[in-house]
Amino acid sequence: MRFLQELRAKFMKSRFLISLCFMVSGCAGVTEAMKYQGTPIQRFEYAGDNWRIFDKPAEGKMMTTPSIGAGISAGTARGLTFGIAGALPEGLQHQEMAKEYLKSTGRESCSIFETKKVIQGQYEIIYKCN
User: Fold this and answer.
1) How far is CA 10 from CA 4, 21, 23, 64, 81, in A?
2) pLDDT in tens, the chain (130 residues)
3) What's the whole-model pTM score?
4) 122 contacts 65 by C-beta, under 8 angstroms
5) Residue 95: which residues within 8 A CB-CB, separation 6 or more?
6) Which residues, other chains included, contact 59 with Cβ-Cβ below 8 Å and sequence gap of 6+?
7) 25: CB partners within 8 A, 6+ apart
């Protein structure tokens, strides 16, 4: 009987630790996104969608996200199809859109060095202009 109690306690502890890891990693993304608070939102149309761009040219980085409507639509589709449909654009799409955005703002000489996921549907693009 004592063996089962110890086993149950270890199981509960491991579940707690796994949950804690997921919560902390989720919070890290939100913290990263908050670094763009107060940055003016630029709207940019690309591939049939309206994107929101939080550009920090002095720092050589931007955060990109599809329109709020696209996010709501994807979330609804994901919910109704139990996760089968409704994917948001992934990193490569964000990177391609960012290249076009930079060109549209007269920064054709800029190169993208890194594209990293901040939270679901939002990516940070690190770039350098010559």
Assistant:
1) 10, 17, 20, 42, 35
2) 666 566 455 545 544 434 433 444 445 555 666 788 889 999 999 988 889 999 999 999 999 988 655 444 444 444 544 555 445 456 688 899 999 999 999 999 999 999 998 887 788 999 999 8
3) 0.65
4) yes
5) 112, 115, 123, 125
6) none
7) none
